[in-house]
Specification:
The complex is a heterodimer of chains A (about 350) and B (about 290). Chain A has about 350 residues and is an alpha+beta fold. Chain A has helices spanning about 35-50, 60-70, 125-135, 145-150, 220-225, 255-275, 335-360, and strands spanning about 5, 15-20, 25, 35, 75-80, 85-90, 90-95, 105, 120, 150-185, 190-215, 235, 245-250, 280-310, 315-320, 325-330. Chain A folds into 3 domains: about 5-115, no CATH class; about 125-235 and about 245-330, no CATH class; about 335-360. Chain A contains 7 helices and 16 strands. In chain A, strands 1, 7, 8, 9, 10, 11, 12, 13, 14, 15 and 16 form an 11-stranded mixed sheet that branches. A 3-stranded antiparallel sheet of chain A has the order 2-3-4. In chain A, strand 15 and strand 16 (about 325-330) form a beta hairpin. Chain A is flat and about 100 Å long. Chain B has about 290 residues and is an alpha/beta fold. Chain B has a 6-stranded mixed sheet with strand order 1-2-3-4-7-6, sandwiched between helices. In chain B, helix 2 (about 60-75) packs parallel to helix 6 (about 160-180) and helix 5 runs antiparallel to helix 6. The relative contact order of chain B is 0.12.
Chain lengths: ~350, ~290
Amino acid sequence: MAEILEYKCPCCGGAIRFDSNTQKMKCPYCDTEFELDTLKQFDEENIEEDRDPGWDGDSVAQSSDELDGEQEGLVTYVCESCGGQIVADRSMAASSCPYCGNSVIVTKQLSGMLRPDFVIPFKLDKKTAENRLKDHFKGKVLLPKLFKSENRIKEIKGIYVPFWLYDCDAQADIRCRATRISSWQQGDYMYTETQHYLVARSGDIGFDRVPADGSLKLDDALMDSLEPYDYSEAVDFQTAYLAGYFADKYDQSAQDCAPRANRRVRESTQNAFMATIAGYATCVPEHMSIQLKQGRIRYALLPVWLLNTVYKGQTYTFAMNGQTGKFIGNLPVDKGRAFAVAGGVFAAATLLSWLLMCFLL
Amino acid sequence: MVNTRISDVRFMKERSVGKMDAVRCAAGFFALFLLCLYSFGLRASANDTKVVDEAGILTSEEEAELQKRLYEIAEEYQSDVVVATVNSCEGMDVQSFTDLYYDRNGYGYGAEIDGIILLVSMQERRFHLATRGSAIDTFTDYGLEVIDDEITPYLSEGEYARAFEKFADLAEDFLEEDEKGLPYDTNHSYRERQIYSLVYFMFALGIGLLAAIVTLVVLFQQLRSVRVKNEARDYVRSGSFQITRANDIFLYRTVSRRKIERENSSGGGHGGGSTTHSAPGGGGRAGGRSGSF
């Protein structure tokens, strides 16, 4: 059963949304601001209201749509404001109505088992994301000139991305073969002594909230590159934060994403322990056992600005961390300029070193 | 009143003329002084004709070009570099003929008549390289052999202009190397030098290639900001890293020894040097090498 939630301004009845600058709810029509604490209660009231059968006006449309929409994973919702039909995929949790532009939140996607443990609210707005995109192009020597001038932002979206956060304890047991080498001169001979050691290290290390995104639609590398987030600013989840943004529920389970987090934990554990072995010329691991004890898994929504731009018919995706402003996205290479730069550097370096050698030797 | 004024003017005029004379005189002395300085600092050869083509085997353009080049080399290093072609040695052996030719035509810089001459005699099909004064040490026996090897093929082919051009190149190279302090000799091989030059050039190419690759990698990396994360060091719980056991056990040792190759210091070695004979007609010592083509 689909339940659509829309925050209505108690003053004027307009749909209100979260404002990242003031970190408050703000009505775009009458500029009234609301504290989120007030909305927490409002939220609870709303859920209670949702249980009222009177609100299920869309149940008929819903049931018929579910039948033919099932195969494609599509669901239809009815907009509370204008009554328009909103077609969305099954994982959509927050969006905007294509007809009236009001923000809609699907409460069923965010309650019960699907309720996130916490959320980091957006701190940076759309304007910042657009400016950061321009900054992103600066100082890139091999970026085609036309890309900067012809490049148009096709789509810009603030999305709360579902993330799994893993707590994990690792127990490591490492054994290495290491050598120390010393050499000295005696008479006409050079002596080299190699001392062989067995080096063993055991210990524990803990990791907190290692993130892995639980969305199939978003590229894992893209989401990894946006890290790190500052978890100290995370707050308890309230649906009100989603008003005005897009959100998906996870479509990869915690079990599906665990290997990615585990791989990272393993790598870092190994690095941490190998770093304690010092003072050897060589060190070759002989035996390595890393036992992971999975701790708490938390479900969080983290803020991401996604930007799509088009250049010569190809789409380029950029992403900005909605909290820290870290901006990422691969850019195309101007091949002609790359050749010119490489050729120039090659010629200059060859000539310079050749002249230098002729002078000095 | 008027008269005195006129005489005053005249007097002044005379005085100014006397001044002009003194300036002219000083300028003349100064010029002479400069000339003296010049002639003391730079010795000149008595004969500026560096190419004598009696056999007529060069075109006038080739001759003019060679003359210009040899003159420049000779003036720069203060040592004569001469190319002469003759129809025959008039019954003398090519060595004596060349030595005499050099003396009779007044070649050579300074008292020791420093210089080298390449004389080609067409009738005997022989050539001779004669060295005098400081050139004897510049062009050692080894050095003359190198020149011989380089120019003989061209002479045999009849490409005289190219042979002489090669001779000019080699002479300049040898003179330059001598000026640096160590002339080409058996202990400072010309061929080795060529190989070193090649190695240096390859090395420079390598550096250039490396620089280009590094630059490209850095510039490409600027455009790539999306990467999968493989580690989680940002998420280590502070204070959770504990080592419960750390053992560094010494197992055994191995010792290997290597004999140190002691190189004989190459700096103290001597080259083959030059063999000399006395030039006919009391012209002093001369070095040289003859060859056929």
